[in-house]
C-alpha cells in the first residue's frame, strides 16, 4: 500500500544572503560566549569562577616590541669617532699637516692663508713617502704658497683686532645714517642692521624680517658706493629677487647704480671671514 505523505506540501522560502551572514556572525559570537562560559566554569581564564579573562589586544604587544626595538637601537648607537690630530712634517722649510683619510692617493692643498700645506694620504703611506713627494714638488709648492699669500684673503687673515674694530666703526657710522635717509624716500622700514665679514657679497637682505647685513670692508670704499649698496639692500624689501621690477626700482632711485656696481666690484676685498 502506498504510504500517504501527511506532512503536506513542501513550502520554500527565499533566503536573503545578508541574513545568512548576520546569522553566521551571531552564531560565532554565541559560540565564543559559550566557550568563555566553559572556560570560566572549568576554572581557567581570570582565575575567579564566573568571570571571563579579558582578551589582550595584539596592538599593545606591537607597541611593546616597537619600543623595545627603539631602545635597543638607541643603546647600540655609536657616536662617530673624531678625526685624529694631523701629523706635522717639516720638509725643506715647508710645514705639512698630514691627515689620514680614506683616499687612494696623496693630495696636497695650500692653506687659504698660504702659511702651510694640508695633505691627506691613505693609511698605508708612510711619512717618509709624503716627505719625499713634497721634496720633489718643492719649487711648485713654494710658488703656490707665495701666490696665495699675496691674495686679499691671506692678507686679511693677518689683520689685527684693532684694524677690524676700525672697519666696523666706520661702517656703523655710515650705514645707519644712509638707511635713515632713504627709508622715507623709498617707503620702506628696515629691521636689524648687522655688519659681518663677507667673501663675495657687499650686503644681504632678509625679506621676511627686514634684517640688512653689510660687509665690513665697505669701510674702505667711497661713500657714494656705500650709499648704492644701502639702496640696493633697501630695494630688496620691496622686491626680493633681481628681476626686471628690481632693476626698474633701482634705476628710479640710483640712475648710475650699474656703473657704481662695476666700480665696487673692481675694488679688491679688504677683509674675508
- Taken as a percent bin, the fraction of beta residues is 5-15%
- Rg, Cα atoms, Å: 41 Å
Strand segment tally: 7
Q: How many H/I helices?
A: 9
CATH fold label of the domain at 161-266: Zincin-like
Helix content: 40-55%
Poorly predicted runs are 1-10, 37-54, 57-65, 71-76
The CATH class of the domain at 161-266 is: Alpha Beta
Dominant shape: flat
Strand order of the largest sheet: 1-2-4-3
The main β sheet shows up as:
4 strands, mixed
Write the layout of secondary structure elements.
Blueprint: H1 17-41, H2 58-76, E1 87-91, E2 94-100, E3 107-110, E4 117-121, H3 127-136, H4 138-149, H5 152-157, H6 161-186, E5 193-196, E6 203-205, E7 212-215, H7 223-235, H8 244-253, H9 257-266
Parallel strand pairs: 2-4, 5-7
Antiparallel strand pairs: 1-2, 3-4, 6-7
Helix pairs in contact: 6-7, 7-9
Can you walk me through this structure?
By secondary structure, the chain is an alpha/beta fold. Among the domains are: 64 residues, no CATH class; 106 residues, Zincin-like (2-Layer Sandwich). Helix content is 48%, strand content 12%. The strands form 2 sheets. Strands 1-2-4-3 form a 4-stranded mixed β-sheet, with helices on one face. α6 packs across α7 and α7 packs across α9. 13% of the residues are buried.
Annotation keywords:
7 strands; four-stranded mixed beta sheet; three-stranded mixed beta sheet; disordered N terminus; Zincin-like; 273 residues; alpha/beta; 48% helix
